[in-house]
Amino acid sequence: MVGAAGTPVLTAPLPQERGGNNSFTHEALTLKYKLDNQFELVFVVGFQKILTLTYVDKLIDDVHKEFRDKYRNEFQQKGALGLLNGTFDFKDDFMRLLRDAEESSKVRAPTVMKTFEQSLKSQKTVKCMIETRGEKPKEKVKNKKNKGSKKEGTEAVAAPTKASAGDKQLSAAGEKEELTKDEILQKNREEFFRRHMKAGEKSRSPKPDAQKEKGKKPRVWDLGNSNAKVLDYSNSATNGSAEACPVEEFDPDMALGDKNREPGRLYDLEYESDDEAEEEKVVQNSSKPSVKKGGLGGMFGMLKGLVGSKSLTRGDMDPVLEKMKDHLIAKNVAAEIAVQLCESVAKKLEGKVMGTFTTVTSTVKQALQEALVQILQPQRRVDVLRDVMDAQRHRRPYVITFCGVNGVGKSTNLAKISFWLIENGFSVLIAACDTFRAGAVEQLRTHTRRLNALHPPESHGGRTMVQLYEKGYGKDAAGIAMEAISYARNQGFDVVLVDTAGRMQDNAPLMTALAKLIAVNAPDLVLFVGEALVGNEAVDQLVKFNKALADHSMAQTPRLIDGIVLTKFDTIDDKVGAAISMTYITSKPIVFVGTGQTYCDLRSLNAKAVVAALMKA
Ligand code: GDP
Prior knowledge:
Helices cover 44% and strands 11% of the residues. By secondary structure, it is an alpha/beta fold. The longest helix has 24 residues, at 179-202. Bound molecules: guanosine-5'-diphosphate. Its main location: endoplasmic reticulum.
């Protein structure tokens, strides 16, 4: 499947071959490395293991970029080996990059080490270390730049407001969904929050009030006509330029959802796994295997058998692998990927000698779990806050482009990311480059108003934290993005978020336009937005977007997708397979996960939580 897609970028090595973790420790030394597949280069940094060098990732990234850019022509003409045989002078560049990286780490990390007694860990039991939604974490978020902004954000939330029911909804696009589909989504969503509640109840120090407030309240789902008012854009002027949309009155509680979170912090996805309990039950009642049909518990129960110290054969594993493959497919992992995964696990285990008390099923399950976690852990972490600060130092805005098909949640999640950036003290210019879909500009205007209501200039020393740059409809999106970036540079905005028109992956003219927008504007980050709801379809979209960007780009080295925003995670219960499929096929990290319709329904991916959900019976 990978080869058939036809572009080098789609090469997805088998899990055990992939460096989910690009570091290697040997005795007192740690090596970190980065591969450049295009020019076949390896960049390695070695340092004493005991040193905690926070800038190593940055250093290796910067050296990679600079070295590649400096010698790009030589690589293209002579290849990497040709260059190495000749002479190249990179020492001064390296020393400069090293100094920069050291400096940047000093700016970013003025942390003082706590004693164990001071640390939260000293008060925690293992159980309460499982973070639950709604429970306010006491730990400070790293990379947070501006303490003032956090406070201000909280104050803004407390401001008294009133609004119509329609205005309370974060999104203006809910009418697209059909009622029956929405009902299913709502059911799944309730299930998602039920799990979170369950996890919360189990934690050591629950906050009773917070627990009461969250989750259990019936959610107003933005169906059909409920947001008709929001969708009435007839009064909007649509041919402005950059505008600090006026502050709009609305209910900030609805926009913010969970009040107990720490502003600006991007929480990890959580998922409660009851698979452990399931497994324990099987071990205790090994004479009475679980008969739950189709589930993993059933599978493990039925196929359980002690192997003793014999080596594993394909025949031992095949029945387990078959069940496992079906289980993965039932969890929305693309069928071909489920097959490849099981195959790679089989190859890894074949001939392995088993411990006396180990079962085939538990061995296979563990190998699969490890492979899945490795797939989800990005080879290269995208640290948006760090990169924004870096851009700030170079006095330029950091640019993120969002692309994907229609209705996946591009604008909504762009707004959530704006909110998160603002809470971290960064100003945002939203570039309305969806000049195609009626209502797209107005939807962004509504978000801009609400974000301004939550973070008014008064709370930020008179600074407007979010502005919309728009030129109405029908114009060239690449040109608007370019103008927006230059406007942001002149006005001192920290980040430009470029919304693009939704397009089907097979639409060649639109894909060419997107490739042009990306080639012309060279954003720092190209994010593909995909729904967790669709299994194989999301993979198809992602593969074709990447391929189309490669095919339709005029540039010598086409710019491709750098990362993924996985949306509507709250609507899939434990059918989390799309996350696996998407990362497996592209080796690109899931940078953000959308978990709802409020501004704080944004998470970072937690590989272990996703794998726990995936393995759950
Ligand atoms: P776009 O066409 O890609 O810009 O999509 P929109 O941002 O307009 O979103 C389409 C619909 O998906 C809207 O109803 C959003 O509220 C909804 N949506 C977006 N992200 C999420 C999410 O993470 N969870 C849920 N439940 N709904 C979402």
